[in-house]
Amino acid sequence: xxxxxxxNWVSEKLLPPIMKVVNxxxxxxxxxxxxxxxxxxxxxxxxxxxxxxxxxxxxxxxTDSGWSxxxxxxxxxxxxxxxxxxxxxxxxxxxxxxxxxxxPAGLTSLAIFLGLxxxxxxxxxxxxxxxxxxxVGSLSGTQVAEHIDKLxxxxxxxxxxxxxxxxxxxxxxxxxxxxxxxxGIFVGxxxxxxxxxxxxxxxxxxxxxxxANQFTAMIPAGVLITVAMFIYAFFSFIVKEDLxxxxxxxxxTPLQGLSDSFGGALIIAFLVPFFWFFxxxxxxxxxxxxxxxxxxxxxxxxxxxHAGKLSLANGAHIVTNEFYxxxxxLTGSGITIGLVIFTLVAARSVQLKSxxxxxAVPGLFNINEPFLFGLPLVLNPFLAIPFFLTPVLVAASTxxxxxxxIVPPLNGVAAPWTTPPxxxxxxxxxxxxxxWQAVVxxxxxAIYWPFAKKYxxxxxxxEQEAEAAENA
Length: 472
Known about the structure:
The protein is mainly α. The chain is built from 21 helices and two strands. The protein folds into three domains: 26-120 and 166-251, no CATH class; 123-161, no CATH class; 262-471, no CATH class.
């Protein structure tokens, strides 16, 4: 099968079913709804850095003055509750796209998200007791347990029982993300379906719209919250744990493990340029598919970094959302900075030199549409190999340098995807990661250079022939 045949097979047979899934209402709600959490993740990352200054004297001064705790508070209530922003945003976007008043749907989604989890947290003494316990003050975990054992049984039970009537912040962060996605989509679908079916209270026209809208929301919100109540009851009485815990155990943990694997990193790195090659926005497609898994990985790393325990031995992830943004898509899909360098340094054809000047600045901010469509890289067999190969090799090598401890795991700080390379590396992993990003830029240049040279030579020949024909 020649290149044209392969391209037709992909565009006619492979892409349509994929795009059908990507363009579903649920996927659009997921993709656009998750965006609402992005400002809080980035803002929270700033406070995460401030509460964990790597310079020890400054860190100690912030701790002693109490400012470290203040920064932690800001981090916890922004980055730390990312699932809240997601569950509201996804339901909101779903219903908005259906043409209805959307904010009540988002708030209904939040109510259900909270209502499906047990409103209790474990007693702090439970984590402090035993050989592996954290202890209390100068007392070890074993000593705490020994002292508790001397108390009357009723008092022991009271002190070690869960604290009720409290929202467990664990489920508001990364560990609740998959549950938030599923609940947001379910609420958006159910809420819209009931409004389309006419399940609403209609008030006279004289009633102000802001009041009427709330009565419109009452029936679908009431139905959905009631259904959620029965689901909570089933899990509470029969399963003996809440739904969020079940989703985390059966769905999120295995999927996070899959996304965090070496093979998972390579598949993601390959599919981004693969979709782009055929003119489909690979970044958006893979971002929609992987965000729900990679963002929780980022959250887990941020929590470990904040606790001073960031290491693979403590459960840190290698493949996070920042791995995706700042390595797989560094300088744009296909990691095309190497091609930019060639066009600025060695290109002889007018086409490559002109496009290189246009792409130079956007490329520093990880934007490479001038190359994707202007060069073009889309459906260009001459540059297909480096376009596919560079992200895969970068993903593989970055995974391995973290796995073998050459550079530390990513710290969970969410640098905006437009942050220039090396700067983003420093923010997400310190100076070692910044150095590694510089190595990645060199890798990109080395991979693209021979292919770009041949392509440039071909373009130069075509330009010279066209000029000769003009002058003839």
